[in-house]
Design a protein that fits this description.
The structure holds 2 protein chains of 2 kinds.
Chain A: H1 3-26, H2 34-47, H3 58-81, H4 96-108, H5 115-129, H6 132-141, E1 143-144, H7 146-173, H8 178-200, E2 208-209
Helix pairs in contact in A: 1-3, 1-7, 2-3, 2-5, 4-5, 5-8, 7-8
Chain B: no helix or strand
The chains are: A mainly alpha, B little secondary structure.
Chain lengths: ~210, ~10
């Protein structure tokens, strides 16, 4: 565990907490893509199957349980408790366009053709593109609330910090995982446009509004 | 390598 990896995990945790707090305190999930949240829940479910087969550390297990619980709690808030505030008219991304290619690719390019490895690989590919419905929603409405953009910034920072962690681990321990790294780069690149808008607008106190 | 790959990252 190095500082970049820890920073990445904490940024991820922060993003999840920001989202839950936003929905809970405003009693509304307006502006949040339920489709992206479904994909994140699917991602964690597929990836953390090893929770029952492999013990790594208390930290590792606790974080997995927290991520899973938070993902399903978010879905509950969006699709049950505050369903009336869910902006489904703007959340029109077709999930099968992301799930099917991720599943197909996981079956072809993986470390080992076993259920747990293919599911892990599927989760890596799916996570890389899981934010697309959310970004699509922001581009459709042309704007995002500040709290939503803080959430997106924390979520994007997480994988960016993981990349630094992978570079560090490659030089310090010779460790590398090509699948995770390439997918992580794709995932981070998807956030670049958003990062630019966040730094140039949101941090200067303006609302995130896309140029017309 | 037949051992199960240990994935220590989240």
């Amino acid at each position: 565990m190095n500082i970049f990896r820890l920073g990445g995990d904490l940024a991820h945790l922060l993003a999840i907490i920001i989202l839950l707090l936003k929905i809970w305190t405003t009693r509304s999930c307006a502006g949040i893509s339920g489709k992206s949240q479904i994909l994140f829940a699917l991602t964690f479910t597929a990836r953390y199957l090893d929770l029952f087969t492999n013990f790594v550390s208390v930290y590792n297990s606790v974080m997995k349980v927290v991520y899973l619980a938070a993902a399903y709690a978010t879905l509950y808030l969006m699709y049950v408790k505050f369903k009336a505030t869910y902006d489904h008219n703007h959340d029109t991304f077709r999930l099968e366009f992301l799930i099917l290619p991720a599943a197909g690719l996981a079956l072809i390019i993986n470390h080992e053709f076993s259920i747990i490895e293919v599911m892990w690989t599927f989760s890596i590919y799916l996570e890389a593109v899981a934010i697309l419905p959310q970004l699509f929603m922001v581009s459709k409405t042309g704007e995002a609330e500040s709290i939503t953009s803080h959430y997106l910034f924390a979520l994007g920072s997480y994988r960016a910090l993981y990349i630094v962690n992978w570079v560090y681990r490659y030089y310090s321990e010779g460790f590398y995982d090509m699948i995770a790294t390439l997918a992580g780069v794709v995932q981070t690149v998807l956030y670049c446009d958003f990062f630019y808008l966040y730094i140039t607008k949101v941090l200067k106190g303006k609302k995130l509004q896309l140029p017309a | 390598e037949l051992t199960v790959r240990i994935k220590d990252e989240l």
